[in-house]
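Q&A log
Question type: sequence-to-structure
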Amino acid sequence: MVGVRRDFGDFGGGGTPRNWAAFGVQGLAPYKFEVSATGYVGEGGETAAIAEVEYEMLFTNRLIANWGLEANWFGQTDPEEVIGAGLSTVEGGVRLRYEITRQFAPYVGFEREWSFGKTSDLRGLSSHSRTDNRWVIGLRFWF
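Response status: OK
Response body:
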């Protein structure tokens, strides 16, 4: 896959908007693990990469747990964005959805994010936490 990514910055007013060119692959690994890897090149020569793996566990034909793990790498340290070079963050979580129809499914889930290396150091020096827990609720739909 090839595309463009736009980071709008923090919605609270901070952060710098950025544009990235994206290059990646995605597919289905053995045992039905969905995997993807995407590399990014920014306007100022910044580089980043994201690797993701997901697995769907069916309890019934309608009740499904979606497990996910995502790792983020950055090529340069950016103290303004509280991002360090190297392995930056790893996020893992689970979402439980109920498919009313295949095209319409509400979900609830929990995600945890850990920071590593220079990103963890920068977060420790700022007001950011080195780990983050989130409850998520949403609606998955397609047509």
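Response note: The longest helix spans residues 117-125.
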